[in-house]
Amino acid sequence: MSNTVKIGKSEVTSTPLGLGTNAVGGYNLFPNLNDDDGLNIVKTGIENGITLLDTAYVYGLGHSEELVGQAIKDFDRHKLVIATKGAQDMSTGEEVVRNDPKFITQQVENSLKRLGTDYIDIYYLHFPDKDTPKAEAVGALERLREQGKIRAIGVSNFSLDQIKEANADGYVDVVEDQFSLVHQDLGAETLPYLKQNNISFVPYFPLASGLLTGKYQHDVSFPKDDIRSGMPIFQEPLYSQILKAVDTVRPIAEAHDATVAQTVLAWYIKNPLISVVIPGAKKPDQVVANAKAMTVELTDKEFKQIDDAFETFK
Ligand SMILES: NC(=O)c1ccc[n+]([C@@H]2O[C@H](COP(=O)([O-])OP(=O)(O)OC[C@H]3O[C@@H](n4cnc5c(N)ncnc54)[C@H](OP(=O)(O)O)[C@@H]3O)[C@@H](O)[C@H]2O)c1
């Protein structure tokens, strides 16, 4: 199994499994983690061989980036891949999505400061705005790349048409968007397009916010301030349908002496359309367990069995 993947046309290389940090730094999607726990999660990831850390300005309005910056001080910066994102202007107190070159250039400078580093390995436009021509926004990132401030250019939550427009000059290295075994809308058109154009793909919510770990049985409920309380995947009839598909992963996991979560993560790692899988975590032991997915090597038959079990979500 290859232990490194290359990001698009850039020189950035990463482990095939990274760490998602939207629970680190108080994004308020979930009941908050405190800073010590957040820091510990990031450090545990690095100590367990994960090189890519996925953060964003909007995760705690800069606080996730600050904690990631604090955590990486104890490690060799050059071995790490820091991915962050920006597009939200909060200066009026309301969120306004902006991709204009002036704003994005300033956002990159702000992220560099919060991360305490002089370069960002992957910088994503977090969301598309309505007005800025996409190639113009990406052109601003290209200039930052020429200055050595970022090393690879990404876009996130862009439609296929928007990706094509953004990549008019061939500068886009990586796309991040929602994709999982239970959310495969991008599988038919977008992922093959990215592959053909040497653009890496990073799926978010790979564990379907924990549902694909196999830890849920029947009857689940979340507090109101937890984003999962409103997610359709945790409501019937979808919920039971997913639990049934997850059951098909159990014997495959057992055959590898692995957990369901590790086996699901191994499915993404083996998937040729996927570059780096970035599961999030709320506890260090989840990070330790998830990092071990990099040692689980599925056979072609097992890959297909899992693929088939989730066919209905394509
Ligand atoms: N670009 C974007 O717009 C965007 C949007 C969303 C997310 N993201 C990125 O994608 C990353 C991943 O998404 P996510 O973290 O929201 O969802 P996820 O990876 O699908 O699920 C992560 C959650 O599953 C549970 N979990 C993780 N490992 C586990 C294990 N081994 N055993 C049992 N439970 C486990 C934890 O929650 P519990 O302990 O609470 O169950 C954890 O917070 C984010 O952190 C973020 O970096 C990007």
TrEMBL record:
The keyword Oxidoreductase applies. GO terms for molecular function: oxidoreductase activity. Keywords: Oxidoreductase. CDD domains: AKR_AKR11A1_11D1. It comes from Secundilactobacillus silagei JCM 19001. Transmembrane segments: none annotated. One of its GO terms (cellular component) is cytosol. This is Aldo/keto reductase. Gene3D superfamilies: NADP-dependent oxidoreductase domain. InterPro entries: AKR, AKR_Detox_Biosynth, Aldo/ket_reductase_CS, NAD(P)_OxRdtase_dom_sf, NADP_OxRdtase_dom. Residues 16-309 form the NADP-dependent oxidoreductase domain. It holds the Pfam family Aldo_ket_red.
